[in-house]
Amino acid sequence: MSTSCSVKMRRRGAELELAILEAAWAELVESGYARLTMENVASRTGTSRPVLARRWDSKYSLAIAALRHQREKYPLQVTECGDLRTELLDFLERACGRASLITVFFSLLTNEYSQDPASSPQALRDTLIKGEDNALSSILQRAVERGEIDAQKLVPEVKTLLSDLFRHHAIMTLSAPPSTLRETWVDTIFLPLVRNT
User: Fold this and answer.
1) Which of 36, 92, 160, 170 could bond 99 through an S-S bridge, CB–CB 3.0 to 4.6 Å?
2) How far is C-alpha 46 from the geometric centre of its chain's CA atoms?
3) Domain enclosing residue 36, as ranges
4) What is the overall mean pLDDT for the chain?
5) Which helix (H) or strand (E) is 96 found in, with range?
6) What gap in Å lies between CA 164 and CA 158, rounded to an integer?
7) Residue 88 and residue 181 share a domain
8) How many Cα atoms occupy the beta-carbon half-sphere of 77 within 13 Å?
9) Where is the signal peptide (predicted)?
């Protein structure tokens, strides 16, 4: 005679790490960085705080890992199609998937900076985007090579303008910019600045 018993399988390794990162992200989105605790993440994951502490030494390092994990879900690399406008709009569309990351990043930045004035926004930014190719620079370089835009006009402030506008909108409205606004940025602001004259 066989008896069936339901045994709850314990997650381990990559599966457990993924569950922890997803739980940490949910906590960050729902409660913000200030209220993030290792205990809440452990509880949400069905594990213990020591399990988290073996992988991440602080809630800061866990938050950074959760942000990086979410960032990887929304790659910004755009396939070359031979038209700068199309590629820029594709880039901004892809960036919309990351809008919530920007608001969480901003929460993390302001909280960390208030706790430790020696920490810098640039250091946090570098930690978060370490190793990521700059997709927008690749798009612009291809456009220069195709002769669509003037390389001399791509001063640093212009090169980052679309990303800066996107971040500003995400931080100020806590949302991704609508497609009509993205088109206005590209057609009315950015392209006139960089086109060959």
Assistant:
1) 170
2) 26
3) 11-73
4) 86
5) helix 84-96
6) 10
7) yes
8) 6
9) none
Instruction: Answer for the pair 128, 67: CB distance below 8 angstroms, yes or no.
Output: yes
Which residue, among 86, 60, 176, has the nearest Cα to 139 in the 3D structure?
A: 86
Give strand pairing partners of 149: 195
What is the model's pLDDT at position 9?
A: 56
Type of residue numbered 48 = S
Contact 29, 100 (CB under 8 A): yes
Which CATH number fits the domain that encloses residue 99? 1.10.357
Candidates 11, 43, 9; CA nearest to 26 is: 43
CA angle 161, 163, 168 (to 5 degrees): 95
CA distance 68 to 58: 16
Instruction: Look up residue 187 and give its amino acid.
Output: D
How far is Cα of residue 89 from the mean position of the Cα atoms in its chain? 18
DSSP state of 187: I
66 occurs within a structural domain:
yes
Angle of helix 38-45 versus helix 59-73 axis, rounded to 10 = 50
- Give the C-alpha separation, 170 to 165, whole Å: 9
Look at the chain and report how many structural domains it folds into: 2
Q: What is the pLDDT of residues 23-80, one digit of tens each?
A: 999 999 888 888 999 999 999 999 999 999 999 999 989 998 998 899 888 888 899 9
